[in-house]
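Journal club prep, shared notes

We agreed each person brings one worked example of a sequence with its structure written out as tokens. Mine is Transposase IS110-like N-terminal domain-containing protein. I'm keeping it raw so we can talk through how to read the token line rather than staring at a rendered picture. Sequence first:
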Amino acid sequence: MFPMPSPLFVGIDVSSQDNVVCCLTLQEEKRPLCRFSVANNRPGILEFQDRIVSLVHKHGFDQVLFGLEHTGCYSTHVAMYLQHHLSFDCPETKVYVFNPSLIRDFNEITLPRRSQE
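Then the structure, token by token:
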């Protein structure tokens, strides 16, 4: 029998100024392993890489799965760096770029509605 994969899920909220990151595991899907922000520039993406590599080494993840919402040129640059230019010392990495309407529709279905005041 094969061992279960140990993935790290990394959600990235991309904007023109910074990238807000939330890291989750299968065991703690409701409580983030960590959250942090980095500048949306080359030094920021290299800091991001260092922090993810540190988590991979500390927890022994064998997969890193990145997810981000398509926000035009900002998310395209981040996705390209993740896919082609950065290394995370992990056997498998995947990058998923989601249509913003999918995220919006998912949130409408799953998140509690704010009460009307």
